[in-house]
Amino acid sequence: MNVLVIGANGQIGKHLIEQLAQEGKHQVTAMIRKPQQADALEKLGAQVVMGDLEGTVDELAEVMKDQNAIVFTAGSGGSTGADKTLLIDLDGAVKTMEAAEKQGVSRFILVSAYGADQRSKWPEEIKPYYVAKHFADRAMLASDLNYTIIRPGGLKNEPGTGKVATGVDLKPGSIAREDVARVIAASLQEEKTYRMAFDLVAGEQSVSDALGNL
């Protein structure tokens, strides 16, 4: 498969590119906004293409030419305000879905957040972030895309263990970003994840077993 990673310069995105390149099963392309990001991502094994989530749907569709799958793991980051969160985490995600449908790319993996589907779980201090994730998820669920929505718990920068738990309404937990990337990579062609939304935290099962038991 030709896999386009949106949010490639983020920490999960970089892990994912490196893992896909090492596996050698898929050709991975990183969408970047700044030319200076290209060198590091090419060294990890990606081709690069310029694109901007604040651009138009048509521009994003053009970026998706010749792709078979989209991974959206972009985010505005913790240092921006609610305005950028809406523009990137919500509208950027929805425009990407619209562009994928326009370009005929059906396989789409969306990285959301634990609890995004349940308002009672939203932390007050980052509620705009959860609003964005919630409605991006809803747009995905209403689409005709062959989606997978992954809702990871608290993200850690420590090395991954390869042991995870997946399911609906899991107990709160955390997970290494490296393991989130492993789950994304394994989900690309795992039919049990097709048109599924699930929580993801560190656990006791291998990635393949956890996804196979969904």
Automatic annotation (TrEMBL):
<dbReference type="Pfam" id="PF13460">
    <property type="entry name" value="NAD_binding_10"/>
</dbReference>
<dbReference type="InterPro" id="IPR036291">
    <property type="entry name" value="NAD(P)-bd_dom_sf"/>
</dbReference>
<feature type="domain" description="NAD(P)-binding">
    <location>
        <begin position="7"/>
        <end position="190"/>
    </location>
</feature>
<protein>
    <submittedName>
        <fullName>Putative NAD(P)-binding protein</fullName>
    </submittedName>
</protein>
<dbReference type="InterPro" id="IPR016040">
    <property type="entry name" value="NAD(P)-bd_dom"/>
</dbReference>
